[in-house]
Design brief:
Chain B: It comes from Nocardioides flavus (ex Wang et al. 2016). The complex is a heterodimer of chains A (270) and B (320). With 270 residues, chain A is an all-alpha fold. Chain A has helices at residues 2-20, 23-50, 59-75, 83-93, 96-100, 106-136, 145-171, 173-176, 180-193, 205-213, 221-228, 234-264. Chain B is an alpha/beta fold and 320 residues long. Classes of the chains: A mainly alpha (270), B alpha/beta (320).
Chain lengths: 270, 320
Amino acid sequence: MRGAGMLHVAVATRAFRRYSTYRAATLAGIFTNSVFGIIYSFAYLALWDANPTAGGYDAQDAVTYVWLGQALLMTIALWGGGATDDLAERIRTGDVAIDLYRPVGIVGWYLASDLGRAAYHLLTRGVGPTLIGLVVFDIALPRSSVHALAFAASLVLAVVVSFAIRFLVASTAFWLLDQSGVKVMSGAFAIFFSGMMLPLVLFPGWLGTLARALPWASYVQVPADIWLGTHSGTGLLAALGFQVAWAVVLLAVCQGVLRVATRKVVVQGG
Amino acid sequence: MTYPLIDVHELARCFDVRRRVEGRRRRSRESVVAVHDLTFSVEGGEMVGYIGPNGAGKSTTIKMLTGILVPTSGRVRVAGLDPSRDRVELARRIGVVFGQRSTLWWDLPLRDSYDLLQKMYRIEPARYRENLDRFVDLLDLGAQLDTPVRQLSLGQRMRGDITAALLHDPEVLYLDEPTIGLDVVSKGRLREFLRALNAERGTTLLLTTHDLQDIEALCDRVIVIDHGTSVYDGSLAGLHAQGGSTRTLVVDLVDEAPAIEVPGATVRRVEGPRQWLSFPADASAAPVVSAVAAAYDVADLSIQEPDIEDVIRELYSRGA
């Protein structure tokens, strides 16, 4: 088990390094996230000026929520992409056969790689815009060290849930050869149901209830609420438990789909 | 009771394929048989050539032997394991090399790829260093160890891939077209290396190739597969006999002459003073040569060995 752990750390490190070679793209990305952060902040401030307690947030919470969203966007690869794009490409070309010949599970391997990528994106595309936001706006910090720690855990879980969904999207390439149509569709769901566009606490009635129960809530809404101190005590554990439950269920589905794929489907090429 | 290292019994694999049918809106499903009724076994230490035309079922067989494809019916055992059920466990005991795919990471130097493999296969550090030194030396990779894989030439990458497949001391090495695209010198070196590997470590080799020189240089045994099932399994020499293959005596006469007539050989072609005579591959050339030399004024003689490709072609056409 320890050997396998070392392998996964090595895989994550490699992914981190691989992404760190794209410096110009990183800087351009931080700039873009910051610009969107500023635009969204003013839009939210106008909204909360009209309704100062909307969704149970005050104006400071709302602006903080905006910058958390910008910081999470690339870290969780909300649009898709990351290690699962590598997987989809390898399914298309048939190189996935090589992955299957290896004495390690594919899901764990790609998850490790994606966590390495996420770490890089957190340190650059996450921290970068947040610093800009801290300078320009009045952003709330976690209420206690417990909340900060819980946020860190929630962040990792957000990446895992997002990874599992992206893995399932990439797996469609076993049947469709190309993931791109499904990926666009999945991205649209993610942007709406994660709370990236609008906090889920603003969704009315049954739509809000539904949105807060779907896995995408793990992406932005749950970590943001933990940062904002909405939950405490058992509420905090329940929020993390919600993410853990989706992570476990979705990773199990990933394993199942992979098993079906190797049973039913032609691995491309000779 | 001991089992053979590779044991395949009445193996079959079908694929569902959807086809568009003229005049119908729904595509119809069809089952295509890739492999059927395939039975063979390989003992530890053998070097077996697994050959057949494109689409014969070679890759499908290899995929089932390595566990990445589940058989439709029949039985496969490799080292006593059921490949598709025990895929991960089996992966530690086999090595796979593809001529057209790489197990290496294109953005990493060779050395880093090998470090990842050491962790992946949990190779004991001392053994890892010993193997790496040995293969780097034998395959002359020392100068490339710190080069990213994407910058390697095809021959270097191939040698890099073979090293990668052998670091964990696999009992079986599957090679899928290992010499494809390599120049003559590289091919020769690779074959020499594989022969030495088999001799020194007793590694079992199963080799698919279209280059029959690979087979002639390496394999004592050949399995020919066509239309998803084995059409020949035996020695290379036996393959010649079965295919009715012939050797050719090329005679350069001093002067042009009508077709040579000697017992035991027939003229295939006449071009000026040069004539081509064929005789059975298992017969001795000596009586033919002396008969020709006794009856004609001969300027020069040479013998061409049978072309195994012709033999295989003959086998395929019989199967069709």
